[in-house]
Amino acid sequence: MNANRHIERHQLPYYLNVFNAFTDKPVGHLGNVSADGLMLISQLPLLVGGRFDLRLKIPGCDGLRYIDFSATCLWCQEDVTPGSFDSGFALEAPPGDYLEMVEALRYYFSFHPLAASV
Question: In what residue span(s) does the PilZ domain sit (predicted)?
Answer without folding.
Answer: 5-92
